[in-house]
Specification:
Chain B: It is found in: Cell membrane. Chain B: Part of the binding-protein-dependent transport system for D-xylose. Probably responsible for the translocation of the substrate across the membrane. The complex is a heterodimer of chains A (516) and B (414). In chain A, 32% of the residues lie in helices and 26% in strands. Chain A has 516 residues and is α/β, with parallel strands linked by helices. Chain B has 2 domains: 41-186 and 283-408, ABC transporter involved in vitamin B12 uptake, BtuC, CATH 1.10.3470; 192-260. The two termini of chain B are 28 Å apart. Classes of the chains: A alpha/beta (516), B mainly alpha (414). Chain A binds chain B through residues 15-17, 315-316, 318, 339-340, 342-343, 349, 351, 356-363, 367, 370-372, 374-375, 378, 381-383, 385-386, 389-390, 404-405, 407, 425, and chain B through 2, 4-5, 7-9, 222-223, 225-226, 228, 280-283, 285-286, 288-289, 292-293, 295-303, 359-360, 412, 414.
């Protein structure tokens, strides 16, 4: 086995009031793919910011050795000069510049301040070929998909002669196909001698690409495992992350009693939506579905299948251009032409993108929780702050939101806790029908379990739940029924007994020609 | 008003413990509270320092009762604008048209009252309606047509300035009715026995003190009731003493001259009213929400267009009020009235803690920011600094205030 390329010893990093890393030791061997996993708030991202110089030398304690020499990076540039490149979860590309311009941004091929376009384009095409991206280097970043943008980031890293590539949840925003390509690329780079560190929540990914995995919990290294070793199972990793044996990833099912006789709580008939800009394109095409009280109904689909678009257009026509269809609540047709109307009819939509569409990050927990139903804590247009505070405290306790008080700005919470705030906000609105769009995206295993428990409880209370997810095990574990969508159409419906990953995937990958 | 910020972490020292280090403990409590609330108190302290600096530099002239009175009158219109501007900025927009709108409404008021002999109360109502109309037209373009506010109000700035000159034909128009002048320049009436002080002002001051104390105590008691952490008793007492003495000093200063200016009363009512709305009313919450994260607010069912529209309507109305006060104070409408007021109001908002990206700020902050600028203007005039250097210094203060804010946020944030 090759020697270590990176060694981090007893790293301690403190923020005002919080100890983010309290004793982390990490050894990454030359030429391996090293996974780091841990619950949100375990310190993964902080650790990587320490390695890459985002947190400069002196702001932490401990020792870092890169290629056996001690490192004292004062900023990202310093670490990049040594060949350490970090790709953050949120991509850092300029949408209106070309691929080539983005790849060499800050690092231009230039002479006396003038860009050498020939060399730029030649080198860019070479790098794009290396990452397997068949796009012209003069294409604008805005015109390619997220999956391809991720590859551009890697090309950018390669242009800096990267030795150690750090990827922070690289597949979080990608669909399965793009994720697969990206993981293959990481393996290819490994063959070329590039060491990678990959932060990931997805255990199957770790199993697929990683050689070893280091588990962090509460700012400490728990253990480093050899992924290929026999004893390293997913359950083993999970129990290391949460610090307890996790027998079941899903809560014990409460027996749901969908009331068969009564009219469905939510029924959507022949719903069709056109793309907001390209109005010829049907994003949602003649979809009809129903959800009963006490029922959890899943919607499975790949990226671009139209799940979010369906949900958002039903929820007050928040997406696209309405082109037909009706919504029925308890058998009666209702108007949901605006968000207040939809909320008024007892429908809630919990977005998949909590940072952009779910929360006001600069505002506090209590104000975020009350926003969708301020009327409930207000009298004659005046908010009763004490009552609001009590409500928020209630959710902080019942949802187990980890924050010192409800006056904490939501932006400072971890992803899982932010998601709990979004859920609290919509629970407070008191809906009868909840549409949950990827409610567990980007959050750790422990928090996922807590959210599953909440969803289960809601169904037991007689609410109708629509559960949109890209993770098939989650849908199989939670739902009474699952619909599949592909290219804007409903392509299948499965009962709990019929649904298997394979069966769902078959319908999710169905093309229009096959169904139409 | 509330002490909820102090509830953020457990009290650093046990309250109410007496002993040799009690004095040091109180100091530590103060410093600690200060450190955690830099944002709120930083500018207030800066204002205090500026006042002390110029009071000393001008040999006490700054704090002469007559000058304090003057200071209020001089700055009233910019403060009126700053209140509205703060709301606009919190909502994530900007309004460049308010200086021109101030001039335009002033001009219209003069035309109504001087050229057409309209009774002044009716003229005031018509002018406020005109301001609301102007604001709502701009609000319509911003909220319902989605044109960026910078562009809409830049157009408004040119348009209203041009209309002002057209209406006034480039001339100054006056004089205005005496009763209207009184509102902008006058003081509360003299009542009761001769006490060497202005009785009504004293009475108002004492009422204000009673109100403040009552509010603070009630707030504290309610926090207790809800079993929430409250500030340590000593800190609370200190805060009360500071609040009461500040109000008392201003009251006595004003009462030993001609009393409280009427504009001050109008301003006070507006500050309390808007402060209350922004803090406690549903619409206030919605303004913060759309500025903080518009898509999230929309998906939460906030009627973002209506709220934006109303914010601009309100700004127009406040600009109209400022225009009336300005015209009345100078007893004439002039085509050059309100030049640069929009920038003063915007500067006041940012000095007072607003954020360029919206969602942050308080009405009280805008007033503090406006007073910082006002005291600087007045103080520099008193010590004889020319207008050239005044602008340089004001520019530096704006930069320093916002720079401090950004630095402080980064220090606490990351």
């Amino acid at each position: 086995m090759a020697g270590p390329v990176l060694e981090m010893r007893s790293i301690v990093k403190t923020f005002p009031g919080v100890k983010a890393l309290s004793d982390v030791t990490l050894t990454v061997r030359q030429g391996e793919v090293h996974a780091i996993c841990g619950e949100n708030g375990a310190g993964k991202s902080t650790l990587m910011k320490v390695v890459s110089g985002v947190h400069p030398h002196g702001s932490y304690e401990g020792e870092i050795l890169f290629e056996s020499t001690p490192c004292r990076f004062k900023d990202i540039r310093a670490s990049e000069q040594q060949g350490i490149v970090i790709i953050h979860q949120e991509l850092a590309l300029v949408p209106y510049l070309s691929l080539a311009e983005n790849i060499f941004l800050g690092n231009e091929h230039a002479r006396r301040g003038l860009i050498d376009w020939n060399e730029t384009l030649r080198h860019a095409s070479e790098l794009l070929r290396r990452v397997g991206l068949r796009e012209h280097p003069e294409t604008r970043v805005a015109d390619i998909g997220v999956g391809k943008q991720q590859l551009v980031e890697i090309a950018k890293a390669l242009s800096k002669r990267v030795k150690l590539l750090i990827l922070d949840e690289p597949t979080a925003a990608l669909n399965d196909e793009d994720s697969g390509k990206l993981l293959d690329l990481i393996l290819q780079l490994k063959d070329q001698g590039i060491t990678s560190i990959i932060i990931s929540h997805k255990l199957n990914e770790i199993r697929r690409v990683a050689d070893s995995v280091t588990i962090l919990r509460d700012g400490r290294t728990i253990e480093t495992l050899d992924v290929k070793a026999a004893g390293t199972t997913e359950d083993r990793i999970i129990s290391g992350m949460v610090g307890r044996d996790l027998e079941h990833r899903f809560p014990e099912r409460t027996e749901h009693h969908p009331q068969a006789g009564a009219a469905p709580a939510l029924e959507i008939r022949n719903w069709t939506v056109h793309h907001p800009i390209d109005q010829q394109r049907k994003v949602v095409d003649d979809v009809s579905l129903e959800v009963r009280r006490g029922e959890i109904v899943g919607i499975a689909g790949l990226m671009g299948a139209g799940r979010t678009e369906l949900a958002m257009s039903v929820f007050g026509r928040s997406y696209g251009r309405y082109a037909g269809g009706t919504v029925l609540r308890d058998g009666r047709e209702v108007r949901t032409r605006s968000v207040p109307e939809a909320v008024g009819h007892g429908i809630a939509y919990v977005t998949e993108d909590r940072k952009h569409y779910g929360l006001n990050l600069i505002d506090t927990i209590n104000r975020n929780v009350s926003l969708s139903a301020l009327g409930k804590v207000a009298r004659r247009g005046v908010v009763d702050e004490h009552e609001e505070r009590r409500v928020a405290e209630g959710y902080r306790t019942s949802m187990n939101i980890k924050a010192p008080t409800v006056f904490e700005p939501v932006g400072r919470l971890s992803g899982g806790n932010q998601q709990k705030v979004v859920l609290s906000k919509w629970l407070f609105a008191g809906p009868e029908v909840l549409i949950l769009d990827e409610p567990t995206r980007g959050i750790d295993v422990g928090a996922k379990y807590e959210i599953y428990t909440v969803i289960d409880r809601l169904a037991a209370e007689g609410k109708a739940v629509v559960f949109i997810s890209s993770e098939l095990p989650e849908l199989l574990g939670m739902c009474d029924r699952v619909y599949t969508m592909a290219a804007g159409r409903l392509t299948g419906e499965f009962s709990r007994a019929e649904a298997t990953q394979e069966a769902l995937m078959r319908q999710m990958t169905k093309d229009k020609e096959v169904t139409g | 008003m509330s002490t909820d910020v102090t509830a953020k972490s457990p009290a650093p020292a046990p309250p109410g413990r007496d002993g040799p280090e009690a004095g040091g403990g109180l100091l530590r409590l103060m410093l600690d509270g200060l450190r955690r609330n830099m944002r709120q108190y930083g500018m207030l302290i800066a204002l205090g320092l500026i006042v002390v600096l110029f009071a000393a530099w001008s040999g006490g002239d700054l704090l002469l009762p007559r000058n304090v009175s003057n200071l209020v009158l001089q700055n009233s219109y910019v403060l009126l604008l700053a209140i509205g501007m703060m709301l606009v900025i919190i909502a994530g927009h900007i309004d460049l048209s308010v200086g021109s709108l101030t001039a335009f409404v002033g001009a219209m008021s003069a035309v109504l009252m001087v050229d057409h002999d309209v009774a002044w109360p009716l003229a005031v109502v018509l002018c406020l309606a005109l301001g609301a109309l102007a604001g709502s037209v701009q609000g319509f373009f911003v909220a319902y047509l989605g044109i960026p506010s910078f562009i809409v109000t830049l157009a408004g700035m040119l348009l209203f300035r041009g209309l002002t000159e057209i209406v006034l034909k480039g001339q100054t128009l006056g004089p205005l009715p005496r009763d209207l002048q009184k509102i902008a320049n006058g003081f509360l009436p003299e009542v009761g026995p001769n006490t060497n002080y202005h009785n009504l002002t004293l009475l108002l001051g004492f009422a204000l003190i009673a109100f403040v104390v009552h509010q603070e105590v009630r707030d504290r008691r309610r926090q207790r009731e809800f079993a929430l952490d409250v500030a340590p008793a000593r800190l609370f007492a200190l805060k009360l003493v500071a609040l009461v003495s500040a109000v008392l000093v201003v009251t006595l200063l004003l009462a030993s001259y001609k009393g409280a200016p009427i504009v001050l009363l109008i301003l006070g009512v507006l500050v309390v009213g808007f402060g209350y709305v922004m803090r406690n009313a549903v619409i206030g919450r919605h303004i913060y929400a759309i500025g903080g994260n518009l898509p999230a607010a929309k998906l939460s069912g906030v009627k973002d267009r209506k709220v934006t529209f109303l914010v601009f309507l309100n700004m127009g109305m406040l600009a109209a009020l400022a225009g009336l006060v300005y015209a009345a104070r100078f007893n004439a409408a002039s085509p050059k009235a309100g030049l640069g007021f929009e920038l003063e109001a915007i500067a006041a908002s940012f000095i007072g803690g607003a954020s360029m990206s919206g969602g942050v700020g308080t009405v009280l902050g805008a007033i503090i920011g406006g007073l910082v600028l006002g005291v600087l203007n007045n103080g520099m005039n008193l010590v004889g600094i020319g207008t050239d250097w005044q602008q340089v210094i004001k520019g530096l203060v704006l930069l320093a205030a916002v720079g401090f804010d950004v630095w402080n946020k980064r220090r606490v944030g990351s």
